[in-house]
TrEMBL record:
Keyword terms: Chloroplast, Membrane, Photosynthesis, Photosystem II, Plastid, Thylakoid, Transmembrane, Transmembrane helix
Record-linked InterPro entries: PSII_PsbT, PSII_PsbT_sf
Superkingdom of origin organism: Eukaryota
A GO cellular-component term linked to this record: photosystem II reaction center
Protein name per the record: PsbT
Family statement: Belongs to the PsbT family.
C-alpha cells in the first residue's frame, strides 16, 4: 500500500524512495 501511495504521490517532504 505504501509503495503504491508513494508511486502515486511524489511529495518532496517525504524521504521515501518514490520518484526521487
Amino acid at each position: 500500500i505504501i509503495f503504491f501511495a508513494i508511486f502515486f504521490r511524489e511529495p518532496p517532504k517525504v524521504p521515501t524512495k518514490g520518484k526521487k
